[in-house]
Amino acid sequence: MKLKKIILGSLTSVCALCFITGCSEQKVEEKPKEEVKGNCTVTECIKKIETTNTKEEINKIIGFEGETSEYSNETTWKLDSKNWITLKPGTNSQIVQATIDKESIKNDNVTLPSQKELQELLNQGITYTELVEKIGAEGTLNSKTSTSVGYIWADKNGQRLSASINNESGKCTVASYR
Predict the structure, then answer these.
(1) What's the pLDDT score for residue 167?
(2) Residue 175: exposed, middle, or buried by beta-carbon count in 10 A (0-12, 13-18, 19+)?
(3) Where does the pLDDT of residue 19 fall: very low under 50, low under 70, confident under 90, or very high at 90 and above?
(4) What is the distance between the alpha carbons of residues 61 and 54, in angstroms, rounded to a whole number?
(5) Could you read off the pLDDT of 140-165 as tens digits, one per residue?
(6) Could you give the CA distance from residue 175 to residue 133 in angstroms, rounded to a whole number?
(7) Which site in 24, 38, 112, 117 is 20 to 30 Å from 6, CA atoms measured?
């Protein structure tokens, strides 16, 4: 009888300890995967779109109709909550801009130069190829104009570097950290 009380007491103590410390089995609710709209991912779509494309042509490339702002006349194609393409009309040409979730492009191989080093590289007239060699990885295309293309890099910590490359000279003209 004493043995039963000792075992029962020990079992009760262990159960209480598990309850108090959270050692019980927990149900983790999985978030449903977000539905991605369109024929392509944001990084695939931006490669297919040209600055000379009309809204209708971009609708066909992406696979659904974009929403046009009545205030700015910009059209946006939301592929999901973190990735979209925007067409910005201009007087001489239009801009195609991709907003890309930095988590999806983080790269352990990316080593971003210091601000001072980046300024020196810009002053020297660094090309995209030289920038790729310096950083350690290809950039992700994220914008196009009639005169330039923009790339973005994200290191393993999520720090981002954006750079614009002039179409004619092939040189980096503007770069900034975010």
Answers:
(1) 96
(2) buried
(3) very low
(4) 11
(5) 999 999 999 999 999 999 999 999 99
(6) 16
(7) 24
Q: How far apart are CA 110 and CA 153, in angstroms?
A: 7
**Tokens standing for residue 113:** 């130069």
Residue-range domain boundaries for the chain: 35-99, 105-178
Q: Per-residue pLDDT tens for 26-49?
A: 444 554 555 678 999 999 999 999
Three-state secondary structure of 28-64: CCCCCCCCCCCCCCHHHHHHHCCCCCCHHHHHHHHCC
Type and span of the H or E element at 17: helix 2-21
Provide the greatest CA pair distance for the chain: 94
The Cα 84–Cα 75 span in angstroms is 10
Query: d(Cα 5, Cα 48) in Å, to the nearest integer?
Result: 75
Task: Determine the Cα–Cα distance for residues 98 and 102; give it in Å rounded to an integer.
Answer: 12
d(CA 19, CA 71): 57
CATH architecture of 105-178: 2-Layer Sandwich (3.30)
pLDDT at residue 55 above 50?
A: yes
Q: What angle do CA 95, 97, 99 make, to 5 degrees?
A: 165
Could you give the CA distance from residue 33 to residue 30 in angstroms, rounded to a whole number?
9
